[in-house]
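Attaching the record inline, Q. Sequence:
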Amino acid sequence: MTPLFSFRRRNESTTPALASPTGLAPVLLAPPPGDQVHTPDQAVTALLNQLSTYLNPSGAGLPDAGVSTVSVAERTLGLGNRRGNEQAAGFAILSLKGGRIEAVVRFQLWAGDPLGADAVVADLQGRLLAARTELWDLGFLVITQLDTSLAENIPSLSAWRKTTDFKVLYEYRYRDLDGAESLIARIPIHVDPEESPSPARETTTVRDQIVRWDEQGAEALSVAGQRHRQVRIRGLAALAYLPPGFSSAEVRVARLLRDNPAPPTSFANWADFVDAVTDPSSPERHGEITFADLDAFFAEFAPAGDPIPLGDWDEDGVTDEYRPLMLAFSRPLILGGSNEMLRISYDDSAFSAPAVVYLRIGARPLA
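Structure, as predicted:
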């Protein structure tokens, strides 16, 4: 047996049609709802639907051509069917999953005479071979020709039937939130000297360059330079869920000298501010810009993909849709020492209503 083709990768694809076998001739009908395959049974349906698109009509008075499975086995993909993680605006929140299906599929073709049955089988084989790239993109890693029957006369249908079998290895992929309701922005670590909960408990909070703002708190996001190493900031990223009608306070972005008690230089627009604080030869080290609200702040950002469904923070029974946003700096903002810092603050201790913003400082180029 020689594979018609074999591949090692594929792109994401939509699910085509829904198979509906009727008697000897499976008939393929309308596409199913949804655009992703998550389970092996959905994958079997998807691969049959995709292969069915390579069938030509049988002709007037003949049964419909069809394709069905002879055998099916599930195969693993990656480690436990996990392929890795996908980021949205730099936030690693999506698990990449998938699976593989090894199956033998049978095409059933019809014609008015034996020579016609031979011709339609040869035509199908040629079209599958010509569509190798398209099938690869759909997830068919291997298609191997197996047996082809002799033409069989079906007197009751006044037709000749011929079947041809292929062994296929089909891979499906999808993205999953793993039921996450939120992101981890900080991890409190409690140390009890005697027994839990001790009155003398000490708490340390571990965090990355990320904060979460909501109606429970809106702590400033700050990053400082280091004594012996420059800190380069390439931009900002955010995931924002701001329900309609949400009203926010001012947002302030400041590059500061910690030992300078004077008010920072105020800038009227973002372009002038970022140009000044990222100047490679003579940067503004003590300047700030204030936005009227979060909408004005995020107006400087660019969308970074489709909205991410994540939890139901406002408990309205509808999954919240977070906007991934990025604001890349054309030049890095360089903090040259421990006296220098970048600070992004919300002009209140918390939001006034249920809403959530994750804000992150990008130390590497944003993409």
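The longest strand covers residues 91-111. The chain has a mean pLDDT of 82.

More tomorrow.
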